[in-house]
């Protein structure tokens, strides 16, 4: 499982795995920053997602 952890200004992705023995292992993957999901301004029209550059 991959989960974001930490305060908004200093987050990181944490990889959590369960070994065959049942032991839980965690490893920090990389620093990230997520924006809060607040919803669309107009719920009648879906918001167009930005396209990836070619």
Q: Your description of this structure?
A:
- The protein is elongated and about 45 Å long.
- The chain has a domain at 2-32.
- The chain has strands at 2-5, 11-18, 24-32.
- It is mainly β.
- Strand 2 and strand 3 form a beta hairpin.
- The chain contains no helices and three strands.
- Strands 1-2-3 form a three-stranded antiparallel sheet, with no helix packed on it.
Descriptive terms for the model:
54 residues; mainly beta; three-stranded antiparallel beta sheet; elongated
| SSE succession | EEE
Structural class: mainly beta
Overall pLDDT, averaged? 83
Shape: elongated
Number of H- or I-type helical stretches: 0
- What is the CA-based Rg, rounded? 17 Å
Percent of residues in helices comes to under 10%
Task: Report the sheet-strand fraction.
Answer: 35-45%
Reported for the largest beta sheet, the result is: 3 strands, antiparallel
The count of strands amounts to 3
Distance between the termini: 30 Å
Low-confidence region ranges:
none
Break the fold down into its secondary structure elements and pairings:
Elements: E1 2-5, E2 11-18, E3 24-32
Antiparallel strand pairs: 1-2, 2-3
Brief account:
Helices cover 0% and strands 39% of the residues. It has strands spanning 2-5, 11-18, 24-32.
